[in-house]
Structures are given as structure tokens and as C-alpha cells.
Task: structure prediction
Amino acid sequence: MKVLSKDINEPDCECGALVLPCFEGEGIKFYEDIDRALDGVPSGIFESGEFRAKADGKSYVVQTFGKIKPARLLLLGLGKRDAFGRDRLRQAGGRAASALKGLGIKEGAVSTRLMADADLDPADFVEGALLSQYRFGAYRKEENGGRELEGLTVLTKEDLEARIGRAGIIAGAVKFARDLVNTPANDMTPLVLARTAMQFAGESVKVTVIEKDEAEKLGMGAYLSVARGSLEPPMFIVLSYLPVKDSAPVALIGKSITFDSGGISLKPSDGMEKMKYDMAGGAAVLGVIKAASEMKMPVNIIAVLPATENLPGGHATRPGDVARTVEGKTVEIINTDAEGRLVLADAIGYSKRFNPKAMVDIATLTGACSIALGNEAIAMMGNDEQLIGRMKAASDETAERVWQMPLYEEYGEYIKSDIADLKNTGGRSGSLVTAAYFLKEFAGKTPWVHLDIASTAWTDKDKPYIPKGATGIGVRLLLEFVRGVFAL
Result:
């Protein structure tokens, strides 16, 4: 969908439908010229109670019969002004774009009069509209009959070109991440993920892929223990985006298990088809690199994606085996389905060699995350309260919500092993936080935040700007977080 901004009066904009955002209880007051041109029909709709502009996702279509140049009006309810904010505007953009598409409209427009009055940024509306139009159709023989919203014109006197461009890049990065996660595991192997990362290689991004033999030389025993059951070769992918001289980078580490069967500790078959999503953390990190490089953000990022499959097989790691990590610590493997923390342990250890100013891992790590928080928030833990505060601030801006969980020292007792330095699971009790505490042991003194996206990386229902399937969560959050770290 192409988005433009133009300084055109609403009645003079030729389009299939003109979106008029409306606050509940304020009627048509921002659009009195349009109301007069249509002989009071829009205001009559409000006065009759047919449309109240509530925050219920409902809109109302008004035919203009040639009295003004837009063929239709789409009255868009926003709810009450005092409950409105940036994410509500994104949601409004998503609902409006979906409504226009549902009407079969190719070219739409939106008035920004209300947004200007409420000090809202139309770029947020655009971002929601763009994100809502994502569809994963790579494996469908028949598409949806060509019902696509092709263009949206933002009617404004402001110079929005740069902000709309930024919204487009961010939405494109989220859609890119969604595509990676939605792709079936037979077509999204570690090798394919590595080749996808290589597409970013160029003047601003350097890409290194550490294959099995080199990983063995580096001592990545925990990471390789997960790969042992699969015939697909593991790929430890490192991307460097370092445009700022003499500045330490932020290390972003994305769990990249391209399919997770649980290994010898086999998962139940019900729902296992979704385990292609176990590389959602890696997909988000690649999305960040894509957006940051396209926007030429003055930030330094090291991205690390420890990619492999976790499958049973004759060479697969067994419960009770011991693996040695890149930093020399040993791990007794109690459950091979607690594999994410193993690959992240080596990824965190490897990332520390870049002396990052901050380190973030993002991972579909625990089923316990959804038990604790449902599908509404990312579980967040870390060892640095200032860094955690920055992540909360980024969450407030993007509405990719985080919720801090504790990392008390007592949780360390849960993962003590009788025969090794650590064991990879402390059992069901406290499993959300003990998984993070395991990673804390490898982060050491480096400022670090852990994001568990197991319950938010996939949705089984459509939301205003997040269609069913992979959500692409983490891309917008981490972009905003990195901006904060570099004080942009």
C-alpha cells in the first residue's frame, strides 16, 4: 500500500472513501463544511444514535452522491478523547484500512483535522494501517480476488514525508519478520535463515556465518548439543551494523530454533505445527537490522542468531548429558525441550567479546510465560535497572508491552546441578524466571535484559493491526529501545 501526504481540502479529494475520525460525544464538529455539503446527513447520523463513535471498532459508511469529490465517507469511531493515545491511533489506522479494503476500495484518504486538534501524530495512524494489511499468501494458489487497498492519502498541511517514510520502513521490517516466522520449517531451515541474513550484507552491514566445525573450535558445546539430532546443519549468524565510530554496540540476541520438536524430550503432537515460530526472536532481530540500516540510524548493533533445529535422532542429545559452553561452564541437560537457554547461553557468551554497552536477548523461551501473562505482555527480566527502565520506556512508546518479573538470588538454587556447574531446568516451579536466571549466569556483569515472547509472538485471532499468525513482536520495541540507548 502506497501512502502519500497532500495539502488538499477534504471535500476536494478524489478518492473511493474519505476517513473521518470522530471522538465519542463530539459529533461531526471537525467536519462542519462536509456536513453542510451533504445537507446535514453526517450530523443526523450522530443525532439519531445510529453511530456514536465508540471505541468498539465500528465504522459507518455515508454515500456522498457526487456532492463532494470523495465517493464515500467512512466515519471512524475512536471512543472518548480522554482515553485516547498513540496505540489507539495505530489501532484506528488498522481498523480504517481493513474497513476500506472490505468495501473493495482501492484508493482511500484520511482527514487529520481531529488529530491536529488532539496533538496526535498521523504517522501512528499510517503505521497501524500499514501493519494491518499484512497477509501471508506464499502458499495459497488463490489470493483474495484482488481486494487490496492500494493507496492512502493523508490530508494535512504538515510536512509528514519523513515520518510517513519512517513508519513505512518500520512496518516493512515487522512484515519481514512475520514472513520469516510464518514460513514452514521445511522452507525456513537454519541455512535459509543464514542466506536471508546474507541479503543484508553490504557497506553498512557485515554478516558472518559460523558453521558447525568453527563452532566446535570456539567451544559452543551448549549450542551444538541442540543441533545434534537434526540433519540440517546449524548456522550461528552474526550481523554487525556499526556506523558510529568509537561507540560500544548494543548486542541483540534472537533465539533462532527453526523448528522445535522438543528433541528426545518430545513435545505433545497437539499444536506442534506452530513450533516453526521458535525462531521469532531471531526474526525480530533481523527486522531491527533491516529497519536500522534502511533508516541509516546512527546506532551500533551486533545481532546474533544461533540457528538450528531441535529434533530427536540417533545422534540427539539425551537427558542427563553434559555440555560445555563457550565460556567453559558445564550444563547438565535435564530436559532437551529446554533448548532455547542452551543456544542463548553460547550466544550471550559469544556476544560479550564485542564489549557491548547493553545486551538484550529475545526468545520464545517458556510455556510458563503464557501461564503467567496470557497473551498480553512480554515477560522481562534483567540485571540492570536503568536498562530495564529504558525497555519500559520503549514499551510505552510502541505498546509492545513488557512486564518485569523478579530474578531473586534464591532462584539460582533451582538450577544447581549435582554433577555440573548448572542444569538447564529447575522443574515446573518458577520455570519462567529460572530460565531467565540460567541466562543471567552467562550475562555476568554486562548490562542485560531478557525478553520472553513465547506468549506474544503468535496470535490465533485478528487484532486491529496484527492479523492472525506471526505478530512480528519485538521489532518496534527493540528499535525504540536502541534509539533510547543511543539517546536519539
Remarks:
- Residues 169-485 form a domain with the Aminopeptidase fold (CATH 3.40.630.10).
- The chain has two domains: 2-155, 169-485.
- Residues 161-182 form the longest helix (22 residues).
